[in-house]
TrEMBL record:
This is Geranylgeranyl transferase type II subunit beta. Its cofactor is Zn(2+). Keywords: Metal-binding, Prenyltransferase, Repeat, Transferase, Zinc. Belongs to the protein prenyltransferase subunit beta family. Residues 56-176 form the Prenyltransferase alpha-alpha toroid domain. It comes from Anolis carolinensis. The keyword NAD does not apply.
């Protein structure tokens, strides 16, 4: 097997044999002679030629409607840290498929209410810290259900105000971590909450 020297003086196997001739040729034409050795294209799912070409909306809706009914499922437990956004994604898909009525509105609204903290921010799940991202997801869910009155909107506004930095940008939480997406999330929040105080920001 062909090898190449690494910094530690050992040998690492070349990945060139694993790549197709076409892939290597494309990389070389692009002026990247070393690119062809960087890795192997991954294809973890093979779709058979006789696979159905129809999108089974009912099966998708059944899956989403049933997701979360088994609270002890491994996947459900491990996704708790992004639960609020997951609920939003699921509800949006169900709404697009005309199946929103299958979701438990009362249970979802109660969940959101229980995730609002004294500071006004909303967390991904009960017992987690509030964050701008999950506050946005919660507000999006509430506007989908036309139920903003479930939470204290004034406190949300105050929470968002405190996350704004001197340069106009926004932190995601009280620890001040910054990503450009937090500004985008603020814009979405601003479009959902019609409050003068929010319109005076940014």
């Amino acid at each position: 097997m062909t090898g190449s020297s690494c910094t530690g003086g050992g040998q690492v196997p070349s990945l060139r044999p694993a790549l197709s001739r076409d892939v290597r040729a494309q990389a070389q034409r692009a002026g990247c002679n070393g690119c062809a050795n960087m890795g192997t294209p991954q294809k973890d799912v093979i779709i058979k030629n006789d696979a159905p070409a129809t999108l089974f909306l009912e099966k998708h809706a059944d899956y989403i409607a049933a997701y979360g009914t088994k609270k002890d499922d491994y996947e459900y437990c491990m996704s708790e840290y992004l639960r609020m956004s997951g609920v939003y994604w699921g509800l949006t898909v169900m709404d697009l498929m005309g199946q929103l009525h299958r979701m438990s509105k009362e249970e979802i609204l109660e969940f959101i209410k229980s995730c609002q903290h004294e500071c006004g921010g909303i967390s991904a799940s009960i017992g987690h810290d509030p964050h701008l991202l999950y506050t946005l997801s919660a507000v999006q869910i509430l506007t989908l259900y036309d139920s903003l009155q479930v939470v204290d909107v004034n406190k949300i506004v105050e929470y968002v105000k405190k996350l704004q930095k001197e340069d106009g940008s926004f932190a995601g939480d009280k620890w001040g971590n910054f990503k450009i997406m937090f500004i985008i999330q603020f814009i979405f929040l601003k479009s959902r909450i019609k409050k003068d105080i929010l319109h005076n920001l940014a």
